[in-house]
């Protein structure tokens, strides 16, 4: 995806699922692991700056995933919550070059398509809000892209706070783009069984 803006992509894949018993990043759907699917959608867009944040069982995941083209950083504090991965990933991206925007994804949205990312970036670059989030039903969340004006706010997140918290900040303007199946992720065995029925 060719733009004049410096955009970093940060894939947050550090969390573990105590209810699944194995890394959800390695759950297979339509012949690929969920993490491979996410990295593939990102890879097709040609972003220059790409960061992958791993944590729980990272050695097992790295053995099975081709993360070439991504700067891999390990979050040893992943159990403290999502905020630690957001901050670590953003700092790793900022260390490479002066950034204009950071696009955050997670690794367990099986229905993510590159068109979702293209729409987010387009809206962010043309409307120029502090952030553009995905919207699924009544909820908003990731993937989401943030302008550099929002970076200090992201670096202040703590514990299980995700970037959605920022919408409650004073004067935080944001846009949304529809992601029809974005609300489906894989956290439990029930999610996994439901996902299997969707492979057909």
Keywords:
single chain, alpha/beta, 6 helices, 9 strands, globular
Q: Could you walk me through the main structural features you see in this protein, from its secondary elements to its overall organization?
A:
This protein is α/β, with parallel strands linked by helices and 200 residues long. Helices cover 28% and strands 24% of the residues. It contains 6 helices and 9 strands. The strands form 2 sheets. A 7-stranded mixed sheet has the order 5-4-1-6-8-7-9, sandwiched between helices. A two-stranded antiparallel ribbon has the order 2-3. A hairpin with a 2-residue loop joins strand 2 (28-29) and strand 3 (32-33). The protein starts with 6 loop residues before the first strand and ends with a helix.
The N- to C-terminal Cα distance equals: 30 Å
Helix percent reads 25-40%
The oligomeric state is single chain
Using only CA atoms, what is the Rg? 16 Å
Brief account:
By secondary structure, the protein is of the alpha/beta class. Helix content is 28%, strand content 24%. Strand 4, helix 2 and strand 5 (71-74) form a beta-alpha-beta unit.
List the helices and strands and how they pair.
Blueprint: E1 7-13, E2 28-29, E3 32-33, H1 34-43, E4 49-54, H2 58-64, E5 71-74, H3 82-94, E6 101-106, H4 114-127, E7 131-136, E8 139-147, H5 151-154, E9 174-178, H6 189-197
Parallel strand pairs: 1-4, 1-6, 4-5, 7-9
Antiparallel strand pairs: 2-3, 6-8, 7-8
């Amino acid at each position: 995806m060719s733009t004049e803006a410096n955009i970093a992509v940060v894939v947050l894949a550090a969390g573990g699922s105590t209810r699944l018993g194995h890394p959800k990043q390695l759950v297979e759907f339509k012949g690929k692991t969920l993490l491979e699917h996410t990295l593939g959608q990102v890879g097709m867009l040609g972003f220059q700056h790409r960061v992958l944040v791993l944590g729980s069982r990272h050695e097992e995941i790295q053995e099975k995933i081709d993360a070439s083209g991504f700067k891999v950083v390990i979050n040893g504090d992943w159990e403290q919550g999502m905020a630690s991965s957001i901050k670590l990933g953003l700092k790793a991206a900022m260390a490479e070059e002066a950034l204009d925007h950071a696009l955050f994804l997670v690794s367990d949205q099986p229905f993510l398509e590159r068109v979702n990312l293209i729409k987010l970036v387009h809206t962010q670059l043309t409307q120029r809000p502090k952030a553009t989030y995905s919207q699924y039903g009544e909820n908003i969340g990731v993937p989401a892209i943030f302008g550099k004006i929002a970076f200090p706010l992201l670096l202040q997140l703590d514990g299980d706070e995700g970037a959605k918290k920022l919408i409650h900040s004073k004067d935080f303007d944001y846009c949304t783009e529809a992601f029809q199946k974005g609300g489906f992720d894989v956290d439990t065995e029930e999610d996994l069984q439901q996902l299997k029925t969707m492979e057909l």
